[in-house]
């Protein structure tokens, strides 16, 4: 079982690696060519795109855990 899990993790890691390397080269060259104001705008844009989904997912996971514990206590 451990061997299967290790092989699966290795395959998923190898499958995702090319996607990360292509994105980094393109984003790096675009950000390096931008002015200081452009670089600040790129940084703020990344935050605007990352923060809301992270907050919503955290709230969703928190609510799921809260109601799951509440349900388990009611069933006990």
Structure explained in plain terms:
It is a single chain. It contains 2 helices and no strands. It is mostly helical. The protein folds into 2 domains: 1-33; 35-76.
Helix content: over 70%
Q: Give the integer mean of the pLDDT values.
A: 86
Number of strands: 0
What is the succession of H and E elements?
HH
Query: How many distinct domains?
Result: 2
Instruction: Give the CA-CA distance, first to last residue.
Output: 33 Å
User: Strand content of the residues, in percent?
Assistant: under 5%
Question: What Rg, in angstroms, do the CA atoms define?
Answer: 20 Å
Shape descriptor: flat
Total count of helical runs of at least 4 residues: 2
What can be said about the biggest beta sheet? none
Overall SS class: mainly alpha
Q: What is the subunit arrangement here?
A: single chain
Task: Name the poorly predicted regions.
Answer: none
Write the layout of secondary structure elements.
Elements: H1 2-33, H2 36-75
Provide a brief overview of the structure.
With about 80 residues, this protein is an all-alpha fold. The protein is built from two helices and no strands.
């Amino acid at each position: 079982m451990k061997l299967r899990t290790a092989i699966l993790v290795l395959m998923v890691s190898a499958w995702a690696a090319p996607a990360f390397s292509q994105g980094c080269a393109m984003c790096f060259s675009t950000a390096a060519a931008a002015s200081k104001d452009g670089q600040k705008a790129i940084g703020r844009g990344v935050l605007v795109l990352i923060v809301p989904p992270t907050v919503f997912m955290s709230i969703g996971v928190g609510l799921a855990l809260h109601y799951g514990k509440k349900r388990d206590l009611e069933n006990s």
